[in-house]
Specification:
- The complex is a heterodimer of chains A (113) and B (110).
- By secondary structure, chain A is mainly β.
- Helices cover 0% and strands 50% of the residues of chain A.
- In chain A, 35% of the residues are buried.
- The mean pLDDT of chain A is 94.
- In chain B, strand 6 and strand 7 form a beta hairpin.
- The termini of chain B are far apart.
- The chains are: A mainly beta (113), B mainly beta (110).
- The interface between A and B is medium-sized, with 23 and 24 residues.
Chain lengths: 113, 110
Amino acid sequence: EPEVTQTPSHQVTQMGQEVILRCVPISNHLYFYWYRQILGQKVEFLVSFYNNEISEKSEIFDDQFSVERPDGSNFTLKIRSTKLEDSAMYFCASRAGNTGELFFGEGSRLTVL
Amino acid sequence: SQQGEEDPQALSIQEGENATMNCSYKTSINNLQWYRQNSGRGLVHLILIRSNEREKHSGRLRVTLDTSKKSSSLLITASRAADTASYFCATDKGYSTLTFGKGTMLLVSP
């Protein structure tokens, strides 16, 4: 069964460092998303991406964040200068159309020290 | 905000009992979806109900949708210990991102 894969599963970084989280969405999907979940809290939308550009982003997705689909398979989330409050589980998701079921990866846990 | 809000926040039941979780939202939707999350894992899609549907079944799951009250419920019948997880509703306008609620943490004791 096709699945969304994310790497790394866990990353520990120092405050101020750059972090890149990687995702491989399901191959025939066209819409890609990043969500985050601070421990025990709700799942928060960060950004959606379609046709090689951001289609929607939340207030959380400020200038420190960027996304890229560099090679037609990977979908990356970059945090330029991490803050303590960026510590969370980051989930990548994809879907075939702009509505319907979202397929999530297992997440990348980011710990900022 | 069209964010779904689930209640209760936490629910503890015995195996074999039914579990009911509710979700309320604020704006019009194209569909509403329920997801499950085991601790520390990704979200898994359970069921989708469209705005023109009132009830949907999938195995031991029953979802209802009342668009006039902007609410939905998820019923899990004959619960098992393996149903222990967090359950989230998510609203979908149809051309935009899914917006998730805070979730209900379900604990099913053997």
